[in-house]
Amino acid sequence: MVAKGLNPPLDKGMALPPVTAWADFDALHDQPALWRDALAAIAARHSSGPVRQMTDGSALVALVGQQLAIKLYPPFLRDHFAFEQALLPRLHGRLNLPTPALLASGEHEGWPYLVMSQLPGQVLTHVWPALDETHKCQLLLQLGRLVAQVHALPVENMAALAPPWSDFFQQQRSRCHSRQLRTGLPARLLAQLDGFVQGPLPNGPMVILTGEYTPMNLLAQGGKLVGMYDFGDGLVGAREYDWLGPLCFLAAGYAERCAAFMDGYGAVLDDNLRLSLMRLLLLHRYSNLPAQIACPGWQDATDFQALAAGIWP
């Protein structure tokens, strides 16, 4: 239960270290003792329940009692905070799948934070390996329907909280080669990269993109999806960008799984779409093919057309 009345002053405890870039934030995330006091102080403003730090994922998160979750953003990700703060009430209660309710927001030592409701269920990452193929395809069908449902929502003021789609990809193209070199794209593909990513991208109606239809941000129970969370990486852009999470982490290399997701969404893969998806994957803000493609042997592809056909048969 959320505490009523005036919020008590925060007990600062150990100060948060200065964080100005992803490398700093990743290093901080890997040392929970450095952010334990901050989350405990925030939690005390909203509940008397016990605080449990969550070390999975990339954000600073704590569960408080059985009802609340706190997510703390570094100052350099204030735009991610603002997007999730606006999107949580937009999604809550409007989908066939539960999403967290936004209960409060604030700031601690210049770091913005959100207080949300907890959701039941197990993270899909832990559930997926035990499912048989029939259940995996059924879950992907359900996930495709969920993504389509989110994309049908009106964009409205969310566009003002995201970079313009064309500007976003202009920036991603300028960084693409160095990123793919750093993350280990095979040399034969790296040699073809610059020309390939200049090709056409999907350019349909702009929709709300959560960017997080991955097994790390979905909850399951009894072989079905029961919840979805984490929307700080959202954008407003072409719908295909949101297909990458399911089609890479859950369906890569399996024609039946790809078809199940696409059937749920109400779309069909063809060769041109596969190539567009391949460009989106290479230009994704977190592109890292060795970590994102659950498809053994993909590194042996001779070109991007062959790679796309192998990932999404």
- Tell me the fraction of residues in β-strands, as a range: 5-15%
Calculate the terminal CA-CA distance, rounded to whole Å: 48 Å
Mean pLDDT: 91
Instruction: Quickly give the structural class.
Output: alpha+beta
Order of helices and strands: HHEEEHEEEHHHHEEEEHHHHH
Q: Specify the overall morphology.
A: globular
Number of helices: 12
Based on DSSP secondary structure assignment, what is the total number of beta strands? 10
Task: Evaluate the radius of gyration.
Answer: 20 Å
State the share of residues found in helices, binned by percent.
40-55%
Main beta sheet: strand number and arrangement? 5 strands, antiparallel
Stretches where pLDDT is under 50 for at least 5 consecutive residues are 1-12
In order across it, which strands form the biggest sheet? 1-2-3-5-4
Task: Tell me what you see in this structure.
- With 313 residues, the chain is an alpha+beta fold.
- Helix content is 41%, strand content 14%.
- It has helices spanning 22-29, 36-46, 78-91, 124-127, 133-151, 165-183, 187-196, 244-250, 255-265, 271-283, 289-292, 304-311, and strands at residues 51-54, 60-64, 68-72, 102-108, 111-117, 122-123, 207-209, 218-221, 224-228, 235-237.
- The strands form three sheets. Strands 1-2-3-5-4 form a five-stranded antiparallel sheet, with helices on both faces.
- Helix 5 runs parallel beside helix 9 (255-265) and helix 6 packs antiparallel against helix 7 (187-196).
- The radius of gyration is 20 Å and the shape is globular.
- It starts with 21 loop residues before the first helix and ends with a helix.
